[in-house]
Every structure is written in C-alpha cells, then in structure tokens.
Amino acid sequence: MADIGTAPSRADGGVRSIARAVEVLELFDERHPTRQLREIVASTGLPKTTVVRLLATLESLGLIIGGGDSTYGPGPGFLRWVKLADSLWEVGEETTKCMQEVVDTSGETVNIYIRQGSSRVAVAQIEGTATVRSVVEVGVPYPLSTGASAKILLLDAPETVLREVAAHQPGLSYEQLKPQVDTIREVGYSVSHGEREFGASAVAAPIVGSDGRVIAAVSVSGPTSRFTADRVGRYVDTVTAAARAISVNGLGPVEVFL
Length: 258
What we know:
alpha+beta, Arc Repressor Mutant, subunit A, Beta-Lactamase, 2 domains, 6-stranded antiparallel β-sheet, 3-stranded antiparallel β-sheet, 9 helices, 9 strands, 47% helix, 20% strand, globular
C-alpha cells in the first residue's frame, strides 16, 4: 500500500531531475562552450553534490564530457541530435532563395521566426552584408512582447497567449497589446524600433500555411540609424513580397511541425 502513495512523488522527483539536467545543459552556448564545476554550482544554485551527480549521469549518457581540471562541455552524444535537428528544422531551398534575395536587396540580416508557446525562435538566418549588422542566435528563445516578428507571430495566437505575453512584460497590458496586434493584422506587416534591443530596428511580415494560419514570420533587421522612413518603406515592400512567395512555395520540411 505504501508504494501506491509514493508513486506520484517518485514521478515528481523524476521530472525535477530531468529539469535540473536540462538546466545544466542550458548553461552551455557559443559564448560558454565549457564551464567550470564551480560555475555550474553557482549558476544553478544546487548543492555541489547534486551537481556532481547530475554531471556524472549526463557524462554516462555522452551528453557531457569532463576534463581533469573540473571543466565540462557538451558531449559527443549531441552530434546525432544536431544532425537530426538540422534536417527536421531546415527551411526549403525556395525559402532560402527568397531570404537571400531580401539580403541582396536590403543589405540587412534576414531571419525566419516561429512561435513556441510565449516565445519566438529564429530557425533560419542569413546575415546582412554591412559591417555593422543585427544578428540574433538561431534556436534561442526570445520574448513575444517585443520586436516586429513577435507581433506577427501573435496574429493567430490564442487570447491566453496574448494575456500571458502581456503579463510578463512590465508596463504592457492585454488591453494595450490586443489593438497593436489587430492593427498589424490589418496592414499586413510590422515595424519596430528599439523594442528588443536599443538601436535595433526590424520589419516583419507573416508567412501563411496552406490552412491559412500564420505559421512563421520573415524579418529584416539592422541598426536603427539605417532604418530611415524611406528605407523602411522599401523594406516593407521587399519583406511582404518575400513572405507571400514563401507562403505560396511552402516554408520547407520545418512546416510539418508548425
């Protein structure tokens, strides 16, 4: 009888262990390809014994590799998942061609964003040709409360998502956010200046799936100093044309998950 009562707690403990393991893995990125044990302990706030146990488990699975000086990094087990993710989340050749045409026309960086819950994630990027350019990290979640692409991705989001986004952004209410999204829906594009990052601007337009839903956003972004009124007008034409072309041709393999 005791086993029945402890089953949920065991399940909860398993979920916590998974969450902690993911928390450790998320500490590694392009800027931090390796971490010292003391950094991991400090960043997670977990007891050193717990961190050591997590690292040992992850290392046994090939997801972490440890050095002799208490230095850790992502293990070779990720290699097969990297290849799998690249193939599953790849945009099609026609989409890449459209993105390149926007870069050639504007000189600015072009991204394809999708919505994941209350975040947006860039799944494809072609950097601009200018020396000073705006670049985000592909695969990294950004809030849906700021940025031109964020507002595009909210066009078909349920009310619960809009309320969640507004609740997590200081100074923003659902009553303020909803009219912004409605206006963008009417005009068919979005423009932002300094919302996500001071000095950065963007123009974005919706990519629509075969069922008529907004499944992604294509954006052009760069320093605000280059986004003059005249250029923004040209960028709007270029980006909305690219969005229409991608919508017609299909986004690519990634579309099956959207």
